[in-house]
Amino acid sequence: MVTALGTTATATWNNLLAGKSGIRIGQPFSELPPRPLAMVGDKPTDIEDLLELAVAEAIADAQLTPPLTDCGVVIGSSRSFQGRWEQMARSESWADNPWLEALPHMGAIAVARQIQSQSPVLAPMAACATGLTAIFQGYELVRRGQCDRVIVGAAEAPVTPLTLAGFEQLGALATTGCYPFAPQREGLVLGEGAAVLVLESASSWLARSGPKAYGRILGGGFSVDAYHRTAPDPTLGGSRLALKNCLYYSGLKPQQVSYVHAHGTGTRLNDAHEVQLLTEGFSPPPWMSSTKGATGHTLGASGAIGAALCLLALRHQVLPPNTGAQDESIYPKLVTHPIPTDLEVALCFSFGFGGQNGVLALGLDRTSAEISGSV
């Protein structure tokens, strides 16, 4: 995992538990005013650099060594190489620019080259639900027996002039910071980041005596509101359907869910939408937090980062805190500081523009006989 909190999963997790935030006021483009941003370095990065770091860490952690010719690749992004395209658009010599290497699917291709894969390569785009979509597409490749092992995840490098200007026109950008679920929340903060998981069948993992698994995928639910380009459906029709399907196909009852990693962008509409979904769908409501107050909103990568943090919470049996304004909350069980717990099931939410809804259920790794998909 690579975020503004750290360039490894361990650094991101430890800094998150310490209550730190990677959000800083910055002005990377002179033509635009200073804004709070969550950047990995001192200047905007490139998506390929994020992926290279994240993939190298993931395969090393899984005790794998390239070439991994039989390993599938599902890597998504909602913006992909937009920063490169904006630079090329300003260039005087368009023909000399390597635009073919900046097509939307080339992040997944770069990962396939990095691990020397000769297996299926997919590059989903589903707005801010991209990360969960990528993980679930990889899960399906394993479940169907098409692959024994798949590299899944997403990356985003959204700090570009056009992205900033677009979100500014929507009135969605915060001016001081990101405060998910605070009554006075003011908007989102764009963040850079990537998260990559190694998803492996139980039989493959057992055959090679792989390292301890972080957890298993229990199931997922996905839907589309078809309501508005940017606003969520106020009737919660699509998000309720995604949650319902996730619980059904995971074989879960609402009371078995003890933690939810929320989408939690810090915008007025999204946070109120999620609070209504959780308070109406669960009794009592589960513990919940958003980590975007620490990492910023990494758009298409946010679901993959959220899933990775859920897996770390399962491994360490600690709920990650909701970084940001914590004096008051519109949700009754917001995690405001790290909470040790007996965690068995966690849900990860992602809700994107165009009404893209994704919910992924992750559980503790149990005996080999019970495992349907290990991460």
Automatic annotation (TrEMBL):
<protein>
    <submittedName>
        <fullName>Beta-ketoacyl-ACP synthase</fullName>
        <ecNumber>2.3.1.179</ecNumber>
    </submittedName>
</protein>
<dbReference type="InterPro" id="IPR020841">
    <property type="entry name" value="PKS_Beta-ketoAc_synthase_dom"/>
</dbReference>
<dbReference type="InterPro" id="IPR014031">
    <property type="entry name" value="Ketoacyl_synth_C"/>
</dbReference>
<dbReference type="InterPro" id="IPR000794">
    <property type="entry name" value="Beta-ketoacyl_synthase"/>
</dbReference>
<dbReference type="Pfam" id="PF00109">
    <property type="entry name" value="ketoacyl-synt"/>
</dbReference>
<feature type="domain" description="Ketosynthase family 3 (KS3)">
    <location>
        <begin position="1"/>
        <end position="364"/>
    </location>
</feature>
<keyword id="KW-0808">Transferase</keyword>
<dbReference type="Pfam" id="PF02801">
    <property type="entry name" value="Ketoacyl-synt_C"/>
</dbReference>
<comment type="similarity">
    <text>Belongs to the thiolase-like superfamily. Beta-ketoacyl-ACP synthases family.</text>
</comment>
<keyword id="KW-0012">Acyltransferase</keyword>
<dbReference type="GO" id="GO:0004315">
    <property type="term" value="F:3-oxoacyl-[acyl-carrier-protein] synthase activity"/>
</dbReference>
<dbReference type="InterPro" id="IPR014030">
    <property type="entry name" value="Ketoacyl_synth_N"/>
</dbReference>
<dbReference type="InterPro" id="IPR016039">
    <property type="entry name" value="Thiolase-like"/>
</dbReference>
